[in-house]
Amino acid sequence: MQTPSKEPESSSMTHEEEEEMVHDISKLQEQVKQMSRSQKLTDAKINGVEAKINGVEAKMNGMEAKMDNLKIDLNTNLKTRMADLKTDLTNFLQEILTNGEKVVKETHDENKRNVNHDSIDANVGSKTHHIPKIDMRKFDGKDPVNWILQMEQYFDLHGVQLLQKVCIASSYLEPEHFFMV
Question: Predicted confidence band at 89 (pLDDT cuts at 50, 70, 90)?
Answer without folding.
Answer: confident
